[in-house]
Write a structure and sequence with these properties.
The protein is of the alpha/beta class. The protein contains 11 helices and 12 strands.
Length: 334
């Protein structure tokens, strides 16, 4: 009898632990019984990054409000956790769609999707294997960074600008390639300095690297590092220099120093895939939208440092030339 009570207690504790990890979305959901269910595995850095993950949550909440879905989510701390989370959700067979936010979930999705071929998955910002049950949405981010490179080069007074990337990987180097190409297109003598944090959630190192860039003469630094990029903004405020935000409009975080922000509509990507699932229109495969599709761009909204209209005009002309194919933006660093 005592052994039975202990067993029941352990089962209850395990159930509570799993609910604490996987049950947060349900506590927020107000959808009617029978609603479609979505599970989301956020990228490293988690919610509160004021960037990529937070924008994904915006799309998720919109889907809850407009489409009546229920959702649950987790915020992994390590890449090694991704596969287990995807498998947990897939094995439950409760979710109509499982969404992985971040390119580094591709391997996990490939493995778990092969185990559960009828489960629908979406990978945001990466490429998984092409199967009917897996949709991969990535972005032509180099197109938007080409535009902010133009604005940065024309705004810089020192002829030296910088970028702090999250990791030295093809995805981030595509950002940097566009940024550098745009800057060089309007100032062939501009110097573009590059630093990498090595993590998406290390604002302290992000700040140290940004400080090294400012101290070496850069007067503008682009933060392409997820949550680590918050350190760039702290450094800009400390030395009274300019910074550029990423993924969402980060200007409101410090409108005195963040004068420009590149944007990608992760919220729309998440919402659109959930909507397709709800409507029975989900389709596996890969999509890579960019400026033409209106999912990447830039904004100066809310900045106290005003970008002159003639500089905006040059960026807008380049935008049209990219859309028309007149400008081909590099996607890799040489």
């Amino acid at each position: 009898m005592k052994r039975m009570r202990v067993g029941l207690l352990l089962a209850a504790l395990l159930s509570a632990a799993l609910f604490s990890v996987y049950g947060r979305g349900n506590r927020e959901a107000a959808a009617a019984s029978g609603a479609k269910k979505v599970a989301v595995i956020f990228g490293l850095g988690g919610l509160g990054d004021k960037s990529f993950n937070d924008d994904g949550m915006t799309g998720l909440r919109r889907a809850q409000a407009e489409l009546g879905i229920e959702f649950q989510y987790v915020e992994p701390k390590e890449i090694a956790e991704f596969e287990g989370h995807h498998r947990f959700f897939a094995r439950s067979r409760e979710y109509d769609l499982i969404v992985g936010i971040g390119f580094d979930q591709a391997d996990a999705i490939n493995v778990v999707a092969a185990e559960f071929p009828s489960q629908q998955f979406v990978l945001i910002d990466g490429e998984a294997n092409e199967t009917p049950s897996v949709a991969s949405i990535s972005f032509r981010d180099n197109e938007k960074t080409y535009l902010i490179g133009i604005i940065a080069a024309l705004t810089s007074k020192t002829g030296r600008i910088g970028v702090v990337g999250g990791m030295d990987i093809p995805l981030i180097n595509s950002f940097i390639a566009g940024y550098r190409a745009g800057a060089l297109s309007v100032n062939p003598n501009i110097q573009v300095d590059i630093r990498y944090v090595g993590a998406w959630n290390d604002a302290n190192t992000g700040k140290e690297l940004a400080m090294s860039l400012y101290n070496s003469g850069a007067d503008i630094v682009y933060a392409a590092a997820g949550g680590s990029g918050l350190g760039v903004f702290s450094a800009a405020a400390d030395v009274n220099k300019l910074a550029i935000g990423a993924d969402v409009n980060q200007i409101p975080l410090d409108p005195d120093h963040i004068f420009l922000s590149s944007i990608r509509r992760v919220d729309n990507a998440v919402f659109n895939e959930i909507e397709k699932m709800v409507k029975g229109e989900f389709k596996g495969g890969r999509a890579v939208p960019g400026l033409k599709e209106g999912v990447v761009g830039y904004t100066v909204e809310g900045a106290k440092v005003i970008t002159p209209q003639n500089i905006i005009n040059q960026a807008e002309q380049a935008k049209q030339d990219i859309i028309s194919g007149k400008i081909i933006v590099p996607s890799a660093l040489n």
